[in-house]
Amino acid sequence: MSSATEVSLSEGRVIRVVGPARVEVLSGAVLAVGSRYPAGSSFVVHRLRSYGIKALSPAKLRLTLGDGSRVEECGEGEEVVDDWLSASEYIVRRCLERRQCSVLVVGPPESGKTTFTAFLANRLREAGLRVGVVEGDVGQEDVLIPTTIALAEVSRPVIWLRELEPVSLRFVGCTSPQYCYSESIMALRELVDEAARAGFDAVVLNTDGWVGSPSGIEHKLAIARWVRPDVVVVTGEDVYECLSRSIGGQAEVVRIRRPAIVRERSREERRELRTQAYRKYFSRGRIRRVKLGGVALFGACFLSGRPVSRDELAGALGLSDSELERVLYSSRVGDTLYVVASGELSIPRASPAESGRIVVLSPDDIKGALVGLLGDGMREAGVGIIWSAEFESRELSILTPWEGEIRGIVVGRVRLSENFEEVGRVVRCTP
Questions:
Q1: Which of 2, 246, 326, 415 has the fewest CB atoms within 10 Å, i.e. the most exposed one?
Q2: Are residue 65 and residue 144 in the same domain, yes or no?
Q3: Which one, of 413, 418, 417, lies nearest residue 430 by Cα?
């Protein structure tokens, strides 16, 4: 149930709106997430978001508040609008001096990275620059879906990156960067290069929150090394100290304050957001059948290895005739024998030495796997879900909104249920 209220703001006053809420500007003008909203304009605050809104002149707002939403006065030092505005204007001047510029945003979870990315992108756009955003948080990808990194153009005011449409994507296949360390760095680098070739004047790169360990810091430094940003924006004092010393003048490091009060999302809410993103993307999809022999295949060794005959399998494992009937597919890659079976197999502990390592899989180990779909030149064209696998005919049924030719498949590490909820990891080349 919603209710409407009107609020009058004096120039310079800042209030915080916690969603879900619709904000209409009746008179004057306000600043929200870096964009100016004049009289007659409006924007929506999602139920999992909260924003500081600053009056640029005496203003009157009408707020339609949903369940759980509220409007709050900001205590001294709680909101960061002025601090972010000052940092953004400095970066805008830097970007206007250059033909092209890139900005890397780094910080811990719930520190305002995503909101500042939108804030800065809006300021750059209002300065007359053509602006792109690269969403690099593979676990909470806002522009496309988790497991991907996407590039989008900011051509209008944006409150949340989820309002943007991707113009290009890279599939990295995981939701935690430590499991796709190199892939995530390469994806960011390629999309920044792609944005430059497409004529973007400025690119803002949002990153994941993996900075609480030396490995996470090294990951962000590796991103900086290969992306070569002009400016690195950091939320969090400890992260700032480490990055500013490490980068050593190769890029300018700017620290911004994190909001004192943030709308923190629970693990369940984050999971819900991921599921919503999957459902939105795949709701436009249809089932397509792909013959494995005619496409490139990455990340699924058991589907691309040398087929093993039933006689060879029986000799290697000593299976009974009834167990052999349950074997759907088998292949060998190097010293590893992969067996896909519809039920339990009694494999002797002391198998013949020539069999090497043995990996037994079920059809469910591949069902629901998120896959990247490649077009010409091994470029990502879309994302799909393996709906089913026909091992005898070596065909996959894939749900995807991509309508073009599928030239390759990259199997990721995430499996989804039929309700598009994450249900586990995929067995790839190494279990």
A1: 2
A2: no
A3: 413
Same domain for 42 and 184?
no
Domain residue limits at 87: 81-265
CA separation, residue 369 to residues 187, 290, 299, 330 (Å): 20, 15, 11, 19
Q: Judge if 114 and 252 occupy the same domain.
A: yes
Verify that 293 and 370 share a domain, yes or no.
yes
Residues 6+ apart with CB under 8 A from 315: 352
Residues of the chain with pLDDT under 70: 1, 263, 348-355, 428-431
| Cα angle 41, 42, 45; round to 5 | 160
Q: How far apart are CA 57 and CA 384, in angstroms?
A: 48
CATH number of the domain bearing residue 197: 3.40.50.300
Between CA 202 and CA 170, with CA 51 as vertex, the angle to 5 degrees is: 40
State whether residue 367 is helix, strand or coil.
coil
At residue 26, the 3 state secondary structure works out as strand
pLDDT of residue 350: 47
| Same domain for 239 and 339 | no
- The answer to whether residues 120 and 214 belong to one domain is yes
List pLDDT tens digits, range 255-306: 999 887 776 778 888 899 999 999 999 999 999 999 998 899 999 888 888 9
Number of domains in the chain: 4
**CA nearest 414: which of 168, 178, 172, 134?**
172
Q: Tell me, what's the pLDDT at 312?
A: 87
Q: Coil, strand or helix: which one is 84?
A: helix
Identify whether residues 33 and 168 lie together within a single domain. no
**8 within some domain:** yes
Token pair in block for residue 37: 């909203």
> Is residue 295 located within the same domain as residue 234?
no
Q: Record the tokens describing residue 8, joined without a space.
A: 């009058």
Express each pLDDT in 34-68 by its tens digit: 999 999 999 999 998 999 999 999 999 999 999 99
